[in-house]
């Protein structure tokens, strides 16, 4: 056989999976039959991968060290495809894992060793969460006691994890988890789910998509006049605080 193509090396975190795909050409003189010509694990041969043989579709695996050919039969000169999933175990240490494969006619022979492999880059759970700043609305005009303002922030998910509402929030910062001096109220839904957390508007935000946070703060009746800076930072609660880009609003109080 000869290799034709394979898909890209993945970067994954705990619990994430990837669909590996390989196409090879039958350069022999006999037709390959499904169930006999498989993709085997190598280096060493017949090893069991450190990954879980699962994903978001048919696993492709027919045993711990064999992947089934997609076609029923592949004649000489035609191409065969192998499609299989692997998932990162929750306890797998971060690092790069090289997974080798080789076509085998089971019960007959291993075919040429072309050193086919994928490098699987495994991140820690905190490293799955990153963002970049997109926009925020202007600082409010000077507010008097009893007045409120709707603060709005948009950020982009630049990590590899999908953000879920209720887990990825906007946290108060400088210092972390500080309680603002303002009242968490306004003319619409407050946006706050705790004294130091603002809820993401979307139910989920996939990598590459944007998330919005909208929240109100009101000037207490007894607040001294002055300029107050309120800092915020996205957080995956229970996992990690994301980058500190110094996001803040300057609020002038009459």
How would you characterize this protein structure?
- This protein is mostly beta strands.
- It is 0% helix and 48% strand.
- It contains no helices and 23 strands.
- The chain has strands spanning 2-6, 11-12, 17-25, 32-33, 37-42, 61-63, 66-67, 73-74, 79-87, 95-105, 109-110, 116-122, 131-136, 148-157, 163-164, 168-173, 192-194, 197-199, 204-205, 210-218, 226-236, 240-241, 247-253.
- Strands 2, 5, 6, 7, 10, 11 and 12 form a 7-stranded mixed β-sheet that branches.
- The protein is rod-shaped and about 90 Å long.
Main traits of this protein?
single chain, 254 residues, mainly beta, seven-stranded mixed β-sheet, six-stranded antiparallel β-sheet, 23 strands
Major sheet description:
7 strands, mixed
- For the CA atoms, what is the radius of gyration? 27 Å
Strand-residue fraction?
A: over 45%
- Taken in chain order, the helices and strands follow as EEEEEEEEEEEEEEEEEEEEEEE
- From the spread of the alpha carbons, the general shape counts as rod-shaped
- pLDDT averaged residue by residue: 97
Question: Which residue ranges are poorly predicted, with pLDDT under 50 across at least 5 consecutive positions?
Answer: none
**What is the rounded distance between the termini?**
79 Å
Helix content: under 10%
- Total beta strands: 23
- Report the total helices: 0
Global structural class: mainly beta
């Amino acid at each position: 056989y000869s290799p034709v193509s394979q898909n890209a090396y993945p970067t994954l975190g705990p619990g994430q999976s990837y669909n590996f795909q390989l196409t090879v050409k039958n350069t022999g003189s006999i037709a390959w039959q499904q169930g006999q010509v498989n993709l085997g694990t190598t280096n060493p041969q017949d090893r069991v991968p450190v990954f879980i043989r699962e994903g978001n579709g048919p696993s492709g695996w027919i045993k711990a060290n064999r992947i089934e050919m997609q076609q029923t039969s592949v004649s000489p000169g035609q191409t065969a495809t192998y499609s299989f999933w692997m998932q990162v175990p929750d306890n797998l240490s971060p690092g790069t894992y090289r997974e080798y494969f080789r076509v085998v006619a089971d019960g007959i022979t291993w075919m040429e060793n072309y050193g086919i492999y994928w490098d699987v880059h495994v991140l820690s759970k905190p490293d799955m969460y990153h963002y970049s700043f997109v926009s925020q609305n202007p600082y409010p005009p000077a507010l008097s006691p009893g007045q409120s303002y709707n603060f709005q922030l948009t950020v982009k998910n630049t990590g590899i994890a999908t953000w879920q509402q209720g887990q990825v929030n906007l946290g108060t910062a400088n210092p972390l988890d500080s309680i603002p001096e303002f009242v968490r109220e306004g003319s619409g839904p407050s946006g706050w789910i705790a004294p130091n957390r603002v809820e993401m508007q979307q139910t989920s935000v996939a990598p590459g998509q944007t998330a919005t946070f909208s929240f109100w703060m009101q000037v207490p009746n007894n607040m001294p006049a002055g300029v107050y800076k309120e800092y915020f930072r996205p957080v995956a609660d229970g996992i990690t605080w994301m980058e500190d880009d110094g996001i803040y609003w300057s609020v002038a109080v009459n």
